[in-house]
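Dear colleague,

Thank you for sharing your sequence with our group. We've completed the structure prediction you requested, and as agreed, I am returning the results in plain text so they can be pasted directly into your records. Please verify that the sequence below matches your submission; if there's any discrepancy, let me know and we will rerun it promptly.
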Amino acid sequence: MSTALAMPGPPVMGYLSRLGLDKDVIRSTLAVLMVGSYAGMIGSHLIFQGISDIAIGQAAALALPTFIGLVAGHILAPRISKRMFHVLSLILMSGALLSLGIAIGLMVTAS
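Please find the predicted structure tokens below.
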């Protein structure tokens, strides 16, 4: 999932959850991982390929929803039990896997 979805979080989330770590530790570890991973990716793209105007426009359009999600997550996280946190994480990871499977199926069907 890290490579296919360009999302380093789901495998790490699964691993850290399986270890039974506190949800605050998991959230902070994922935050650091995301900042480092995406900063490195953007830096390597800037150096080796450049970034298209389309990608910049999409990033700008998604900045506000991302910020809203971060604030909502920060507000809601203390109110969610550890068990519910793990259930929601599993649902989100399963949804990402399902959407990837559907996208691959559509690509195979189209070709």
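Summary note from our side: The first helix runs from residue 9 to 18.

Kind regards,
the structure core
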